Amino acid sequence: MKIEGLERFERIPSELENLGEEEIKRILQSEKIKKVICFVLGPPGTNIGQAAEKWAKRLKVDQKTEFIWCQTPEEAVERAKKVNENGVLSIFWTCAVYVNEAFVFFTNPDTLPFFFIEKMNLDEMQLATRPELLPEIKNGKIPKEWRIASHPSPAPLVRKLGNSIVFANSNAHAAEICKEGKAEMCITTESARKIYGLTKVFSFGSPPMIFFGGITSRGLELIKKCL
Questions:
Q1: 74-82 — which CB contacts under 8 Å span 24+ positions?
Q2: DSSP 31
Q3: How many angstroms separate the CA atoms of 62 and 4, rounded?
Q4: Please, are residues 90 and 39 in contact by the beta-carbon 8 Å criterion?
């Protein structure tokens, strides 16, 4: 029964359900796909961005791939939906531990959020500060008045410290906030730490993570043409 105001989830056609990596690579390298646009969480230095770049290189489509940085994964979805150029495949990227992953999934039934999957060890997650503040950390204790910039997802890593959290749009954005003096520390990646000239205080490590490349219904039709 069709009910006004409701929509069904997009489904993967049977001919695309069991594609191997080589077949996916062939499809993406097809001349029918003139350009790939990856909408990723920014600014540069995020794990999502690095995973998308790794995916493009692994499938040998990096030469025709453009990366557009977004403030949130939700923005990435919306911008991907607006791409309607012929021969252009738009992909929005998310992460398995993104706090709003379920929201992205259930509010966009007209997309396929998990069409592509990339496994990657996280770029070393760490607690970092500005170099000039390092001497204030004494006997391994962080000043209680210090603010820690963090994306909501990894924020629980510092819950036992009791410091106030300044929420950021991404791990790289957290480093930017710290650099600008809006926080004294941040949870960030090694790449972002280098970009913003911060000093590592503690390493949380580099656990394996799953990242998802989602496509729109228009993108699905383009991929089907390449079979």
A1: 74/100, 74/103, 74/104, 75/39, 76/39, 76/40, 76/41, 77/39, 77/104, 77/108, 77/111, 77/113, 77/214, 79/39, 80/37, 80/39, 80/111, 80/214, 80/215, 80/216, 80/219, 81/111, 81/216
A2: T
A3: 42
A4: yes
Whether residue 2 is contained in a domain is answered as no
Statement to judge: residues 200 and 152 lie in one domain: yes
Residue 8 lies in a domain: no
Tell me: do 68 and 114 sit in the same domain. Answer: yes
pLDDT tens for 123-175 read 999 999 999 999 999 999 999 999 999 999 999 999 999 999 999 999 999 99
214: β partners = 92
Query: For tokens 């890593």, what's the residue?
Result: 157
Q: How far is CA 84 from CA 76, 80, 97, in A?
A: 15, 9, 30
pLDDT, one tens digit per residue, over 28-64 is 999 999 999 999 999 999 999 999 999 999 999 999 9
Q: Tell how strand 164-167 and strand 185-189 pair up.
A: unpaired
Q: Which two tokens stand for residue 103?
A: 């929201």
Residue 6 lies in a domain: no
Total structural domains within the chain: 2
